[in-house]
Write a structure and sequence with these properties.
The chain is an alpha+beta fold. It contains 12 helices and 7 strands. Helix 4 packs antiparallel against helix 5.
């Protein structure tokens, strides 16, 4: 499933927010855990430790009272101490304290984590055992007090009962100390563990925060990289706005920006092609206007020059006939006059040919389009110019495709175009060369290529090649290629030129299929 650009950016920042949220939740969870740990120590183990310390103190006082009773020699004083001891006997008080301690231990166990439940149960077991020992200790102490309260106490019985009481006192004192030490050690362990967890939690929070920041920076960099084509697109739009239609972004990918960039590239290519087409149309329109202007001028020139030229030609012919009948003092004079008249006749014929070209350009004939075999037309033109090309040292290579279809053309106008192109190629190879004529069928047209191995031409010359009156030949009129292009355009075809300086020139004609 392809995600949109906005969705991917949103998901990237959502991941960052979730990461920061997890860091916050981890911090809150660790704070809650520390709070429970502090509560367990302060309101649980610490209170139980204080209870154990108080019970140990009370038991120590009881041991002192028992020692005073046993050390007193005066029966009256001993009985008074025993009476006080019975009034303030700590057995009931210790039982109450142990009950309170067990109740507190039960409350702590209810809120303590599972790892602390066995330890608290062990404390409760010890308290129950202490309570039972205190009950037994109370009964033994009462037996000693009763034996010592008589007028003649039995020494053996007193010594035995006293030994039992002292043994119980030592055992109870030892158990109270062990209980207090166990609670103290547990408090120390929990405090040390809390400190270690606090240190590890701090490191973990710092590490997770740094990771979240790095993830945020990575998401920002990824977003910037993803949106970088937008800046390229803006620059491309600016170039298009300045008229530079060659702008191509070349952005790859499947997101919206990449699709938009590819559509922009397609639009730029379309605009570039449209501009080239408009430029070509403008050039064609300009050439048409030039040809129209030349046509109007040519028609007037032909009207003013053609009739006088005909008269001059006729008079020169009459003069030549008269010269042939005339007698001269020297044969050299006759030859000179004959040469001059021949030169005048040649120039009159050349001017008549120029006026004929101007007239054809001024009043182009509509082509009579019929299916024609272009290879047959080419064969006829090449046969007609064979002697001329052989004298110029030009080798003709015919590369006619056997599958060349007929074209819609006016044979006379088509022969005029081919003759003009062959003459230009021959003049481009003053020292001889190779002239290749090739045909190639296309989908809707037939392509004819006339390629020579002459001197070629520069791009500057090629740009003005089809303009009227533009010529690079001495004595040329500059109308041949302009008229040829005009004829092919009237046929619905085209004429173009490809040339490399020093390597030759190729004229490419395209004519519609019949």
């Amino acid at each position: 499933m392809k995600l949109s650009l906005a969705t991917r950016i949103f998901l990237g920042y959502a991941v960052v927010l979730v990461t920061f949220g997890l860091v916050s939740l981890f911090s809150v969870a660790e704070l809650h855990r520390n709070r429970l740990e502090i509560r367990l120590v302060s309101q649980g183990y610490l209170q139980l430790s204080q209870d154990a310390a108080e019970m140990e103190t009370n038991h120590a006082n009881q041991q002192k009272n028992t020692a005073r009773v046993l050390e007193e020699d005066s029966p009256e004083t001993r009985r008074a101490i025993i009476r006080l001891a019975r009034i303030y006997v700590p057995t009931t008080l210790m039982t109450q304290r142990l009950a309170n301690a067990r109740k507190r231990a039960e409350e702590v166990r209810a809120e303590a984590p599972e790892s602390e439940v066995p330890f608290i149960r062990e404390l409760e077991t010890r308290m129950v055992e202490l309570d039972a020992r205190y009950q037994e200790y109370g009964r033994a102490a009462e037996s000693v007090f009763s034996a010592l309260s008589t007028q003649a106490p039995d020494k053996l019985e007193v010594d035995r009962a006293t030994a039992d009481v002292l043994t119980m006192e030592d055992a109870i004192g030892r158990e109270l100390r062990l209980l207090r030490l166990a609670l103290s050690n547990r408090i120390r362990e929990r405090v040390d563990g809390a400190e270690e967890r606090e240190r590890q939690t701090g490191l973990a929070i710092i590490s997770l925060s740094v990771a979240a920041i790095l993830l945020g920076l990575g998401a920002t960099a990824w977003s910037a990289r993803t949106l970088r084509p937008v800046r390229t697109l803006i620059e491309g739009v600016s170039r298009i706005g300045r008229g530079d239609y060659t702008a191509q972004l070349g952005v790859r990918g499947d997101d919206e920006v990449a699709v938009l960039a590819r559509e922009f590239d397609k639009m730029a290519r379309s605009l570039q092609a449209r501009e080239a087409q408009l430029k070509a149309q403008a050039e064609a329109l300009m050439r048409a206007e030039q040809l129209a202007a030349v046509g109007r001028i040519s028609a007037q020139i032909v009207h003013e020059v053609r009739n006088p030229l005909s008269s001059i030609g006729l008079n020169v012919e009459l003069l030549q006939d008269a010269v042939e009948r005339a007698r001269f003092d020297a044969p050299e004079d006759a030859r000179e006059v004959t040469h001059l008249l021949s030169a005048v006749t040649h120039e009159v014929d050349r001017l008549a040919d120029v006026t004929e070209q101007y007239l054809r350009m001024a009043r182009p004939q509509r082509p009579d389009l019929d299916p024609r075999d272009v290879t047959a037309v080419l064969d006829g033109v090449l046969d007609f110019t064979r002697e001329e090309l052989e004298r110029a040292g030009v080798e003709v290579v015919r590369q006619f495709s056997p599958a060349t279809p007929p074209v819609l053309a006016d044979e006379g106008q088509l022969r005029q175009v081919f003759l003009n192109l062959l003459r230009n190629s021959r003049e481009a190879m003053p020292h001889g060369g190779q002239l290749t004529i090739a045909t190639r069928p296309l989908e809707q047209d037939v392509e004819v290529t006339v390629r020579d191995t002459g001197q070629g031409m520069t791009d500057e010359v090629r740009e003005h090649l089809f303009e009227p009156f533009f010529t690079t030949k001495e004595g040329g009129t500059g109308l041949g290629l302009a008229v040829s292009q005009q004829i092919l355009q009237a046929h619905g075809g085209s004429l173009s030129c490809q040339s490399i300086p020093g390597q030759g020139t190729a004229f490419v004609l395209r004519l519609p299929r019949a």
